[in-house]
Design a protein that fits this description.
By secondary structure, this protein is α+β, with helices and mostly antiparallel strands. The protein folds into two domains: 191 residues, no CATH class; 58 residues, no CATH class. 18% of the residues lie in helices and 25% in strands. The strands form three sheets. Strands 1-6-2-3-10-11 form a six-stranded mixed beta sheet, with helices on one face. A four-stranded mixed beta sheet has the order 7-12-8-9, with no helix packed on it. Strands 4-5 form a two-stranded antiparallel ribbon. Strand 4 and strand 5 form a beta hairpin. Helix 1 packs parallel to helix 2 and helix 3 packs across helix 4. About 21% of the residues have low confidence.
Length: 263
């Protein structure tokens, strides 16, 4: 995993992105970028629509994300009240990135269940996602978004901010992959990619493999052993009869291979 950032104060948008691109490529060498995050001051407002194409041509990142900003920070420097572009880029192996764009008329009602938010975002909460989000404050109810996301994804980390630099609706810009958007909110849902090996079946060390003579045993046990055929608990001791292991009484759902720890 690699991160790098660059900042340019070139007055022309194309030159500024090109300058940032050179610095970023020198830092990451020949590796492919998974993400490029751009923050662009309003001095380039007339060229906002070119951002997606120029980012693709210069950096070739799999995902582009960002917004306009009244001030920008990059490579340890801050630019305010003058032209500036900051680009932060990353190589993120084994990280799954899902972009999304939200409009106010598509938001679920605040009484809606978590499943409605999962359908909207396109990510299930049980996948343990985390989120980066940016919104246009003139066109999107950020508080409603945060309340809904906290409800649907209570364990997820959520970070982000507001597009700025404009004094009217439609003046800010949101950058998402090949789109330049003027309203709504954008986000990235991130999660780890899991690579299955050995047919995606769990492989246990040899000393923890279930014994063959236990394969036909019931999957639950009483405190004293396996249930008897009449439904009563049959007293068994693994060391004496070989009929099955005694189960730790503290385990509410014992499984094959469990052994007592209180001997």
């Amino acid at each position: 995993m690699k991160w790098t950032s660059a900042l340019s104060e070139q007055p022309d948008l194309e030159d500024a992105i090109a300058e940032c691109g050179v610095a970023i490529k020198n830092s990451i060498e020949d590796e492919t970028l998974d993400l490029a995050v751009a923050f662009i001051s309003p001095h380039y407002e007339e060229s906002y629509e070119r951002v997606a194409d120029l980012m693709a041509q210069t950096l070739g990142a799999k995902h582009v994300f960002g917004c306009s900003g009244g001030g920008v920070i990059g490579n340890g420097l801050e630019v305010e009240q003058r032209a500036g572009i900051s680009i932060t880029a990353a190589v993120l192996p084994d990280v799954d990135i899902k972009p999304f764009h939200l409009q106010v008329d598509r938001l679920p009602d605040l009484d809606a269940g978590p499943d409605k938010w999962e359908d909207l975002i396109g990510v299930q909460a049980d996948k343990d996602p985390h989120f980066v989000m940016l919104a246009d404050p003139y066109s999107f109810p950020v508080q409603d978004l945060l309340m809904g996301m906290d409800y649907a994804y209570p364990k997820a980390t959520k970070i982000g901010g507001l597009a700025s630099g404009a004094s009217r609706e439609g003046g800010n810009a949101l950058f998402l992959d090949d789109q330049v958007l003027r309203t709504g909110a954008i986000g990235l849902a991130t999660g780890r990619q899991y690579h299955c090996r050995h047919g995606c079946r769990p492989r246990l060390p040899a000393h923890r493999q279930p014994h063959a003579h236990l394969q036909e045993r019931p999957q639950h046990a009483t405190r004293t052993g396996w249930p008897g055929s009449d439904g009563s608990a049959a007293e068994h001791d693994a060391s004496a009869s070989g009929a099955g292991p005694r189960v730790d009484t503290l385990l509410p759902f014992p499984r094959r291979g469990d052994r007592r720890t209180d001997r």
